[in-house]
Amino acid sequence: MFDTHCHLNFKAFDGIVDKTIGDARLAGINNIVVPGTDIESSKKAVEIASDHEGIYAAVGIHPHHVFDMVKLKASHFVPTLSVGTSRDKQNDDLKAKVREIESLLDNERVVAVGEIGLDRHSYQKTKYREYRVGEEFISLQKEFFVKQLELAKKYNKSVIIHSRETTTDILQLTNDNWDEWFAGHTVFHCCEPNEDMLDFAIKHDIYIGVDGDITYSPKKVEFIKKVPLDMLVLETDAPFLLPEPLKSQKIYPNKPENLKIIAEFIAKIRGEATADLIQTTTENAMKLFGLT
Length: 292
Fold this sequence. Notes:
10 strands; single chain; 10 helices
């Protein structure tokens, strides 16, 4: 099996990465992609991938962490440029961060740029004080997204797209910056149950990533039934999105070994044999990341 999205580079796995990978192998998960969400986690993803056979890295700046480049003025609940920061300085900061991501792309263990994209969700739990989503913040997210798409095209890397509450914008930007290389080498990570996204994915040969939340989301159940099997890839998004019944039992953190629970659940709701679903989604993942 292939877990196409697992954050072994996050704090939840500090000190237990080797054991977690070993347990995953015992459960039949032999391949994992570890996506970055900022510079530090991207570098850590590369380190983990370099130390373990069958583990690969993706590098990129998640839209949530673009907030690192904006500051909330105390008198206005709208993200704005930090005091004394010119547009030129902001451009310099953006270019510097993108260069750091680019510096990791020559590593043979890096198979994708990700996770990148857009996010309008108002997070309650975040390291950023007084986190707010404003149009300047979204505009900066868009700049980062486009710059990182350009890197993927330049280095022939696959793309892991994160989209939360941004369907119209993400589809427009992706379409405006589309390159034939992206067809068959792109995935909508933890895809929202949205018909427009599915239609776009079918037309552009984009994979649909499905995670443990399908075990407790009726909307996702109905959505995944409509996705052609040759477009599906499996993810845990560990340490997040713990599938049922583990979620109710509070057996945290989520781990890649739980991928089989997701596969069995999907096979059941789709009326397919688990073995067939596992084989096809594994083959899909290998094609997605150019590992065939």
